Amino acid sequence: MTQPNIVLIVVDQWRSDAFSHLGNPMAETPHMDTYANESTSFRRAYSSVPSCIAARAALMTGYGQKKHGRVGYKEQESWDYPHTLAGLLGEGGYHTHCVGKLHTYPARNLLGFHSVDLHDGYTHFGRKNEENYQRIDDYERWLKDELGSDRDIVETGLGCNGYASRPFCEPERYHPTNWVTTKAVDFLRRRDPTKPFFLNVSYHRPHPPFDPPKAYWDIFQEKPLPEVPVGDWAPEKVGMRFIDSPVPESPLLRDRARRAYYAQMAHIDNQINRITHALVEHEVWHDTIVVFVADHGDMMFDHNYIAKSLPYEGSAGIPFMIRLPQQAFGPTERTSQEVAELRDVLPTLCEAAGIDIPEDVDGKSLIAHCQGKGSSLRDYLHGEHVRGETSNHWIVTPTDKYVWYSQTGEEQYFDMKNDPQELHNAIEEHTDRVIELRQHLINELSDRQEGFVAEGKLVVGCDSRPILNTIPQKPADAKWPRA
Asked: Which residues constitute the domain of residue 39?
């Protein structure tokens, strides 16, 4: 079989339910709805460590968190893995390119790509430690070239993790979402025509700042907002954030944040259609796999929480669509209820490309499941995130979820089949099932360095750090290039 071209679209902080074809009244995603009609959507897909860096480690290595070693958020930790998705595809004959967010360290680590147009968004470490920030941000350099040396990505006045919102302060063509799309389309023009290509299009939005172009801001200002779900277990008040990234107390401002979040998605939806146009114009659409995933979601005030790193659907649940060219792979299923994870992207794309999957990969190829031929993918998935007092571990299956807060010992159980919004903590009503799921977690944690398990029981209050001591290293003779 001729190797297919591959476009991997990664969005940052996009909830799994944020599509109009799923009935979300806030979403306006006509182009992604069309993609869904030609794709297999994994409706029970998750990010097992739902924050930016750890999620991308799983995506790019095919490892679970025990192997990629990242169980929380921490910058300045080198990416030196034995293999990467781009490296494997490059060795297998692909011309590889990434545009947008990689969030690696060092920032100019190519991660196996032949070339990268880099924009990670606002990166605290880079801005503090780089004498010239433009060295590690190609969008920032372009913006200054276009509009003047005094221009900066923070000019809109919003924090990089806040829930204040306002329209983008420049014309739409200068928005980072447009820049990523333009660079992606330009790669399709200048790619090596003698090779299949792997193009990773990685959007920083809809992650804050919530600054959609004004046209999208205006569209969403009058849309009716559905009530946010608040479970019988939820905290009474939404937590605050950093001084530069506030969470407004005002219901009006919180409503604006929700509208701006969905406006960012509508903007991305239209920009993705520019890529579709380019694939058609270059006559490669029918030979191209398109995968659409997010690194994690956003609670967006559900259960009085915001952002990510939590075990709930708004945070850990992700969209995961795979569009396989029918002429090469045959007819495909429209949906799957198998529990999928970001680690599954690497083996899926390697199999599709006819490239050997490394033996130490934890993820599983989803090709057979797209074709309606696969057996059970996994019985459960273990997720976690170091988060101070709310550090958490969870076990999710196709039908239910168990949550354990490691610093307090609090437990939760959700019947996902009958309570998909996680409104009721049924921990006291399903004791036998809770024992079973708790045992899965004990098995997962029994050999961990933190000491989470002693005498066959979970131990509360263990010291938890965002990086394990098990990060594998790239061998000296590895072929994939690094900057």
From this structure: 5-375
